Amino acid sequence: MNRNNMRLKLLLCFICLATGCSGIKPEDTGMKLKVFYHDKRSFNDIYGKLFTSQNPHVEIEVVSLNDYYKKGFSEEGYRELVKKEQPDLIFNFNLPSFVEDGMQIDLEPLLKKSKDVNLERMNKNMTAYLRNKGGGRLYGLSPTFQSKALFYNKTLFDQFGIPYPTDHMSWVEVLQLAERFVKSERNAGKMYGYHHNTRHAFWLVKDVAETEGLSLTDAKIRSHKGEQP
Question: How many CB atoms lie within 10 A of CB 62?
Fold first, then answer.
């Protein structure tokens, strides 16, 4: 088996945790793979032990990124590190940017030959999202993903005579709709209209900001020693 297929086997090992696909049989000797991850221990606990138990002759070198994070790791710094270290698998990267630089391998041909995974069993929205990020091609896979949804109680909306939420509403529209419950004469101060699954208003603001494409920091602004940010 060539190196590209070995990379895919390790990646599929990650995917197995989320999809329940069949085990991977050891086939190679003297093979070494380099992986970028947060730290070696967490990588081995989540992925490495499972993979090496089925592929004992494959050595995995984990490059811990925690030390780089502490130094104020930037996207450009990550790109330079990838070019220098030439890892086989990387995590938490800007997919479109890496694709433009030709730093990624198209997984589609390898997946078509694989007996360990079936793309049809994966979340189609997730693979469609990754293909969109890759310009129509599949350059990466995700072992996990998170999704959020807005649930509403139709009985309460009917009771208060308030129209149901609709698809593609903005945060402003959602909060304005929730406000109608508070201002309704039928409420008597017993209902708030909206509940965000968080303990602090900060996380609500953060979620709203991320929806609008905002982040906590601006990568274009860099402070230097002795200078005011």
Answer: 21
